[in-house]
Amino acid sequence: MNRDIQAINAKIEKESKFLDVLTDEIAKIIVGQKYMVERLLIGLLSNGHILLEGVPGLAKTLVVNTLSKAVQTKFQRIQFTPDLLPADLVGTLIYNQNDGTFHTKKGPIFSNLVLADEINRSPAKVQSALLEAMQERQVTIGEETFPLEEPFLVLATQNPIEQEGTYPLPEAQVDRFMLKVIIGYPDKDEELEIMRRMSGNTLPEVKPVITPQEIVKARSVVREVYIDEKIDRYIVDIVFATRNPVEYGFDDLKDLIQYGASPRASIYLRLAAKAHAFLRHRGYVTPEDVRAIGQDVLRHRIIVTYEAEAEEVISEDIVRKILNRIEVP
Predict the structure, then answer these.
(1) Is residue 267 part of a domain?
(2) Which 3-state string (H, E, C) describes 157-168?
(3) Do 190 and 231 sit in the same domain of this protein?
(4) What is the mean pLDDT of the chain?
């Protein structure tokens, strides 16, 4: 078994070398934001959609645009507004008067990286159109269904400040995002560099360093990363502790959790932990990989009670307690 792990480790070390070149290329434009860039790469390598939350001006759009240029993928930014229609997203049928037939006009969803900006500003009918694309990797226009080109990734943004005129996302849709990433402000040195770089004479150009086909290939390699049965059980214990906290000795959390994490949490936590190990050129998962990615996988999957809201306890506090107190293998 050890020899097998060594072989996998050597393969992963070789196959993950492109990540250093990719991150260096992104760093030409993006200052800091290592956490956000890593999470975007985890989503890209795990075939999982990402919900980004942060105040305006934290380079969310710029990071996604830069990533798409570096991996030579098609990129579309869709501004979600209250008057957006499903046809504006997926496309529609156009009637041709000359020959009396309908022709399909594909919408901006037919891309590789789709940035859904301020996703919670559009009503439910638009969300349902996006949901099919996210879950089924296909779009239905009229009576015809079109598969979406791989890689396909939805990166949605939410503004945590301005809640007026927004529509809460359905829980079924939120659950389909692999990660929810909270983006913070840069530190002083980073902000100084951002200020100088963005107000200089010229901005550096991003060069393509990897192809979409290589990303798809890397995804299959990520799935080969070794994960021990003890770590599998550790992941399941973390997820089950959100559903049955008393069984795991979390009596203090019993009245704070209304609904725990779904089975998607277990699946995504395992996949994301593998991708996290791959980013570090490792062919095996450690408990630290699970802990590092746990908050991003679980924070949007736990629904707190009114008691928790009254005590100003948020889902992140609950996840933190569980990760700190569940026994590490």
Answers:
(1) yes
(2) EECCCCCCCCCC
(3) no
(4) 85
Residue 24 lies in a domain: no
**What's the CA gap between 283 and 287, in Å, rounded?**
14
First-residue to last-residue Cα distance in the chain: 19
pLDDT tens column, 195-248: 887 776 777 788 888 888 888 888 988 998 999 999 999 999 999 999 998 888
Cβ atoms of residues 67 and 115 within 8 Å: no
Distance between CA 279 and CA 41 in Å, rounded? 8
* Residue 45 · residue 268 · CB < 8 Å: no
234 located within any domain: yes
Residues 43 and 172 in one domain: yes
Give the pair of three-digit tokens for residue 319: 């996840």
Q: Using DSSP, state whether 37 is helix, strand or coil.
A: helix
Based on the structure, what is the number of domains in the chain? 2
Q: What is the mean pLDDT of residues 46-67?
A: 84
The pTM (predicted TM-score) of the whole model is 0.87
- For the chain, give the percent of residues with pLDDT over 90: 21
Determine phi and psi for 17, rounding to 5 degrees: -60, -30
Q: How would residue 16 be classed by pLDDT, with cut points 50, 70 and 90?
A: confident
Domain that holds residue 169: 31-195
Name 304's bridge partners. Answer: 257
Q: Which CATH number do you get for residue 156? A: 3.40.50.300
Return the CATH number at 287: 1.10.8.80
Residue 284 DSSP symbol: B
